[in-house]
Write a structure and sequence with these properties.
Blueprint (H helix, E strand, L loop, with lengths): L1 E5 L2 E3 L5 E8 L7 E7 L6 E7 L4 E3 L7 E6 L4 E6 L8 E9 L2 E4 L3 E5 L2
Parallel strand pairs: 2-11
Antiparallel strand pairs: 1-3, 3-8, 4-5, 4-9, 5-6, 7-8, 9-10, 9-11
Length: 114
Amino acid sequence: VQLVESGGGLVQPGGSLRLSCAASGSTGNINTMGWYRQAPGKQRELVAISTRAYRTNIADSVKGRFAVSIDNAKNTVYLQMNSLKPEDTAVYYCYAAWGRSNSWGQGTQVTVSL
């Protein structure tokens, strides 16, 4: 499974961004897709994930500001990020899982700054 992310960039505090991640290859068994992030000097952390049945798990730090959605027909997961804060600055990684396997995207930089 290959994952290709898009939509990162520079945004001012309070702004919005939407990340997209499209899966290709043997996508039929994927049951979960979502997003993790890693800020400089910190460990990678979960942001938001969704199963194909639309069950979601969202980090407390972004609840009420971020939303994850999945388009099963397109094998694509989205992350809508609103009310962005400087502490949201990180490399955001797409994630897909099936059985005991998983795959990661190459990462997309999100920078929140004036």
